[in-house]
Amino acid sequence: MGGCQSFIGSGDEASHTLTAENHGDINTLKLKNNNVQKAPCLQEKVYLQDHFLRERISDVDLFTLTALPHGLDQNEWLAFNAISFFKNINLISSALSEFCTSTSCPTAKGPGNRVYEWMDEHGKKLKCSAPLYTDYAMSYIQDLLTDENVFPTRAGVTFPNGFMFLVQKVFLLLFRTLSHLYSAHYRDAVAVDIHPHLNTLLTHFITFSHTFRLLEASETAPLDDIINALTH
Ligand SMILES: [Zn+2]
């Protein structure tokens, strides 16, 4: 069984991080309200700019959408949503995969220089590129979700002991996928106009994760700024 580790790296920020020197690239995309120079703190994280934060695909109440439906077993609800989030995050990740290569992203990172390492089945840590980490993560999740012993689909079959732990691991890996997309590929998401989907997906994902306590605060810390902006 594979695993995952993270730490704060000491090297340069991910190669796609916005800097004062490459604002020109952003301006050519679709900015209508160029106030970048007036807000220095936003220069580093394009996804915190107000006009991007407002872009969502739905105004539905995500707390209502997330709440456990009356009469439904909680494990069933967790399984259903784990599968749904996996499909949606995998879809967006795949849509941006042409921008995420071993050259553009030689290290799997999130914001704040958070480095993600994969742990192989022998417990050995592997420092790998972002696309390779994503491949490992998605394959691992796919194997779990299709394992009848972990995510049973037959009526009357109960969920295994430790199910919650495995669900938390699925959400951890999905969060890291989103974390890398925000850190390194938000400009790419803007370029192909899927950033409203990304914002909505992150908001729903975080609302669900908070409701069922699926992610540690220390894990989500690198995205706290945008999480707070999207959920408040
Ligand atoms: Zn990447």
From TrEMBL:
Instruction: Fetch the InterPro entries from UniProt.
Output: MOB_kinase_act_fam, MOB_kinase_act_sf
Q: Where does Zn(2+) bind?
A: 100, 105, 180, 185
Instruction: Could you list this entry's UniProt keywords, alphabetically sorted.
Output: Metal-binding, Zinc
Which protein are we looking at?
Answer: MOB kinase activator 2-like
Please name the taxonomic classification of the source. Eukaryota, Metazoa, Chordata, Craniata, Vertebrata
